[in-house]
Specification:
By secondary structure, the chain is α/β, with parallel strands linked by helices. 40% of the residues lie in helices and 18% in strands. The protein is built from nine helices and eight strands. Strands 7-6-5-4-3-2-1-8 form an eight-stranded parallel beta sheet. α2 links the parallel β1 and β2. α4 crosses α5. It is globular and about 50 Å long. It starts with a helix and ends in a 7-residue tail after the last helix.
């Protein structure tokens, strides 16, 4: 068993232990990783991969076109990238403002299933971070739900990296409450994306249904050239 397989098996066991009786989705965050690393992980059974940058993702998708993978855009989405995002991704987890849904809906090919959409929430109000304010979620959700080529699936968040675990968990708890409020209005929502390599157990304890894991899976990211 090589290092990648060992980390993958360990992570699957950890997810099962942290969410007994549930089946949280593992999203492998493959940003900065070469296509070969994605192929190796896919050979172990992983199917869902998350990318931050549209152009980087498109290059990997071309290199891995022979594989049936599910691609999630998890980085900030610029309006001029909506065409590529709508055409080449299965999920966009970073919709955070009213300008984006109509562009994604217009560019989603009619022959493909609706694009799965998560609303990114800036749950801690960080000036440096993307995401809509919690109080803007319902209006944005209504907008997405009204568009025929989009499918509203739920919420995503990246809480502030507080060193105190209880402060991170409190942010995850606020997200869970917001998600429950959203589901009351939009019962089809089923995805709460939160938790990364260093804090996914806390996120799972507060009801995350999808965790986004990169370095704990692939190892340290390669240095930037």
């Amino acid at each position: 068993m090589d290092a990648l397989e060992a980390r993958y098996r360990h992570l699957l066991d950890a997810l099962a232990g942290a969410a007994p009786g549930r089946a949280p989705v593992l999203l492998a965050v493959s940003k900065t990783q070469p296509a070969g690393a994605v192929r190796a992980l896919a050979a172990l059974g992983q199917r869902a991969f998350g990318e931050n940058y549209v152009q980087e993702a498109l290059a990997k998708q071309r290199a891995l076109a022979d594989l049936a993978l599910e691609w999630h855009l998890i980085g900030p989405l610029q309006s001029n990238k909506c065409r590529e995002a709508a055409r080449h991704f299965d999920w966009v987890q970073s919709v955070d403002r009213p300008k984006l849904p109509p562009l994604l809906d217009r560019e989603r090919p009619a022959g493909r299933p609706p694009l799965n959409v998560l609303l990114q929430v800036n749950i801690d109000g960080e000036a440096s971070k993307s995401g809509c304010a919690p109080e803007a979620v319902m209006a944005l959700a209504d907008q997405v739900a009204a568009l025929p080529r989009l499918r509203l699936r739920g919420l995503m968040a990246i809480p502030a990296p507080h060193p105190e675990p209880e402060r991170r968990r409190a942010a995850f708890a606020r997200m869970r409450h917001l998600f429950e409020t959203l589901r009351a209005a939009h019962p089809g929502c089923d995805t709460l994306s939160m938790g990364m390599s260093e804090d996914y157990p806390l996120a799972l304890a507060e009801g995350a249904t999808l965790v986004r894991v990169g370095s704990a899976l692939f190892g340290p990211r390669p240095p930037k050239p």
